[in-house]
Amino acid sequence: MVSEIVFRTIGLTKIYTMGQVQVDALRGIDLELHAGELIVLLGASGSGKSTLVNILGGLDTATDGKVFYRGKDLTRANDRELTEYRRHHVGFVFQFYNLIPSLTARENVAIVTEIAKDPMTPEEALDMVELGNRKDHFPAQLSGGEQQRVAIARAIAKQPSVLLCDEPTGALDSKTGVIVLEALDRVNRDLGTTTVIITHNAVQAKMAERIIYLSDGQVTEIRLNEQKISPRELNW
Amino acid sequence: MRALERKMFRDLWAMRGQGLAIIFVILSGVAAYVSMTSVMDTLEKTLDTYYVEYRFADGFASVRRAPEQLKERLRMVPGVNHIETRIMAGVNLEIADFDEPVSGMIVSVPEGIQPALNRLFIREGRFIQAGREDEILLNEPFAEAHDLSPGDQLTAIINGRRKVLKVVGIALSPEFLIQIEPGSIFPDPKRYGVMWMGRTGLEAAYDMDGAFNDLTFTLSPGPDKNEDVLKLIDDLLKPYGGQGAYWRADQPSHFIITEEFRQLKGTATVLPLVFLGVSAFLLNIVVSRLISLQREQIAVLKAFGYGNMDVGLHYAKLVLFITFIGTAAGMVLGVWMGHWLGKLYLEYYRFPYLEYKLRFSVVFMAIVLTGGTSLIGVIQAVRVAVKLPPAEAMRPAPPAMYRATIVEKLGLQRFFDQPTRMMLRNLERRPVKALLTILGMSSSCAILIMGLFFSDSFDYVVQVQFGLSQRENLTVTFTEPTSTAALYEIKSLPGVLHAEAFRNVPVRLRYGHRSYRPALREFCRMLICDALSIPILNLSRFRPMAFSLPSGWRKF
User: Is the pTM of this model over 0.95?
Assistant: First the structure.
């Protein structure tokens, strides 16, 4: 199957300077991600997964190399262009949900739909993650799994081309984690959103179409998953 | 309402305690600014209008006794527009049910008509009728102090003769907005009063028929007040005992009132600025902390496409909302206080009217000042929030940079335990902050000491002035220079322990283009005492005051 290339990275490098120490977070990453794919980035802590996703999502900039999003060079984009890019094309799901505690579930989604071009309504987004009955609850009134599903609803409400999830089940127990992964899988199928899930849990990789292994800031292996299974069947 | 605005209001609600405290500080600053500035505007406008409408003179001069014909020659002085002569005389008064000595100043007015200069505002009653030698108008504060009203009578010792005077009206004059007895520090309407009487009556009483002892004048529009006019007037009055002409600026009531206005203006500027400075400081602390706590929320907003400007505006709006509430409430309170202050000043300054006016520019300035200082207070914190890259904001803040302190580098660390090292490193890491904190604490200490010191120094001044210098129980002022025989006469009165004489000499001090008419009574008295070596002060007990006058000063 030949599908459109959403992301292409060429020799992507990122060096962090932390005080007087330089850390090579990414060391020449070459990748291609396709439209509608569900990809799992697998690697140990400090392998560069989050850095890669942050650069793909326009949250961070590369030290060297190129990143193209649908042919547009993100490494040459200025701050305003990156903001526009994040506003209209990318959805993020973070490990610790990062909901705004002073806003209800609906309002947490609305904060994104209010600035997006062609969003679904917050209610529709919450229905997609099966939280239609928890719309007016504040984050503090929701369980961890529910909060993460609100975060997913928030990420998908703008109908982004790309959904980038950084350890979405990292703070959840396995049962709740499965529910969250199911929601991501459903969004990927129903909306055709290119979905990248970061994890260090090898079991979760079984739900992906492709698995990209990272180690020490380098891609060590890219494996096609011929036997993709439903999140419901995952167990860890 | 947009979700981001909801967030702002809920953030505000969450920090309502701190917000309210800041609102109160802003409110106080704005109320002080609006009330004091508007009252100052109102007072200045009222004073100007009052002076113009009631034709307050530009210059004044006193003379022992000058013929009325001199008026024509005075009118010829270049620059002089209008001259009015009059008689002013000090009198002793007897007020029913008030045992203490009361003195007064009688000012003549033309028969049956308002004077051309220093016109009177008749608050109550009527003007003096022509030919009625026993009718007087009383200055309002004096009348109020003794509960006198038209129809009442009082007894005056006019030129040694007791005369019953009939009060026909209560009046105000631009010349006596502040009514202070010469030589006094504070107005004392119970013991000193100004009154007006028909000229003919006063002429007869003081043997001033066809003569005058005081004059007021205005200048022609155009030329600046120059010393030549005064000099020419002084030259003309000199043969008749002229005591020196002076401008309105040196006229006691005007001088005191303009000095007070100047001080009020200073307070009206400094006080609000202190409040606004404190509010900016508090906002800086509160917003910096809020932004630091919301670091991840800022990152999320940015991750989902909110720009730097959106984030910056979000926090700026939060600050401006607090400022707006404080400013709006401060305006309302300020206008109310302005009215109240206006009424208070009206009682004190004795204007015939006071129209409270709030200029738009005052409102505008209050908004700009509060908004400006608030934004300046938080600009750095907001800038940090705006500049934070989203990926960095998502991570916990990196540990702050610390290094060994100078003391430790000197090898003295063995003397310090861990908590002390933390404290020292904190201080050395943010030296400016530490310095400002020390400065703030020392300033607050200084304010406390200053307040206490002020009270002590005032006690000291009072002690020196009234305990050592002016120790008299009574002062007797003579209308004419009197021989020392009067002093012995007074000394021989029963109950008098000690009496001493002094002389008031009007002088003008000049240095280069500057000139100054000092309050001469104490000055001359000291000079005379010094010259005659009268030991009125036990100066050895009071080292700071033990000075001798420079020899040159005795030449006066």
Answer: no
